[in-house]
Amino acid sequence: MSAAPPDTPRAPPEELLRGIQLSKFFALPGGTLKQTRVVRAVQDASIEIAPAETVGLVGESGSGKTTLGRLLLRLSEPSYGQVWFEGREITHYHERDLRPLRKSLQVLFQDAAAALDERWTVEQIVAEPLLIHGLARSAAERGERVAELLRTVGLSPELRARRPHELSSGQCQRVSIARALALGPRFIVCDEPIAALDASDQRRVVELLGWLQAERRHSYLFISHDLRMVLHVSQRVLVMYAGRVVESASAEALRVGARHPYTRALLNAIPEVDPRRRRLRVLLEGEPPSPFQPVSGCPFHPRCPRAQLDPCQSEVPVLVATEPDGAHEVACWFPHG
Ligand SMILES: Nc1ncnc2c1ncn2[C@@H]1O[C@H](COP(=O)(O)OP(=O)(O)OP(=O)(O)O)[C@@H](O)[C@H]1O
Ligand SMILES: [Mg+2]
């Protein structure tokens, strides 16, 4: 499929990025009769992100957060739905058409040390995007830009000759941020960027991301298991469960009046570090449904204290606005009032 034609309608100017009813299904080989099994990683998820806004995305492991982030960055093509960026539909753009947009769309990962190439120096890592996009004319200019980017993220330019294993986790995440900033991005997916850091580094990296946004006006999708942390950094928050968005509201509205029983459970859960996976998991009763055997009805009903036989066990609730302004939506047959 080809790039959108030039007369593609423009989205309203206050919108930077929009995902419309996005679904991503993965086909996996396997099963007893060698039939294909399908993982419904994301189903019917819609999201809008304004310039300079931080939208939080929260949910347990396997709920589809990273997959949704990758769809918005067009690192992955949706099975259904649309992605719009700066007023253009980019759902089926080829890599060639995406290339000029790659400068604007960046990502930070949880394990920055693992995401950085061990063999490269800090200078090479930060300079690479400048080289790829031809943004520095000479080696001297590139060196200048790298030093400036390192200072911007609070690192001494003297670290430029070091390699990732000679840096702390917090320093590695700052190097990743410097690299992401090199091309002047409009949108950065922060995929659990502080989960592997100690408490003081977490605070400092969150502060840094906030300062950078105030200065540069880019937008973030901030992904985490920890709803309380997401509420702290985001203006709006989407809660995902088993591939679906089950609640969407301003951070303030969720803090004082979460409507979905799952969101309420997350607010009361204690995130803890899972030593095997070095990531936060949320302590909730029961397990999310297996991606191979989706439950009938509401995917949360087996764990839900408010579930009734009918309709919770037979019909999937869709997102509906709780107020006339549409700012707070919940997918639940019996939401909290
Ligand atoms: N490339 C892939 N091929 C097959 N299945 C995949 C692929 N990527 C993700 N999945 C599956 O899709 C579901 C959602 O995964 P995803 O990584 O988006 O969840 P997540 O919310 O980011 O989880 P975590 O908190 O553990 O990072 C999971 O069941 C996962 O196993
Ligand atoms: Mg993930």
Strand-helix topology:
Elements: E1 17-28, E2 37-49, E3 54-58, H1 65-72, E4 80-85, E5 88-89, H2 95-102, E6 105-108, H3 112-115, H4 122-132, H5 139-152, H6 169-181, E7 187-191, H7 199-216, E8 219-224, H8 227-233, E9 236-241, E10 244-250, H9 251-257, H10 261-268, E11 271-274, E12 279-282, E13 320-321, E14 329-330
Parallel strand pairs: 3-8, 3-9, 6-7, 7-8
Antiparallel strand pairs: 1-2, 1-4, 4-5, 9-10, 10-14, 11-12, 13-14
Helix pairs in contact: 4-5, 4-6, 5-6, 8-9
Bound molecules: adenosine-5'-triphosphate and magnesium ion (MG).
Question: Explain this structure to me?
Answer:
With 337 residues, the protein is of the alpha/beta class. The chain folds into two domains: 17-104 and 186-198 and 216-330, 3-Layer(aba) Sandwich (Rossmann fold), CATH 3.40.50.300; 112-182, no CATH class. Helix content is 29%, strand content 23%. α4 packs across α5 and α4 (122-132) packs parallel to α6. The model is unreliable at 1-6 and 277-282 (pLDDT under 50). The site of magnesium ion has 3 residues, from α1. Residues 26, 28, 39, 41, 59, 61-67, 225, 291 line the site of adenosine-5'-triphosphate.
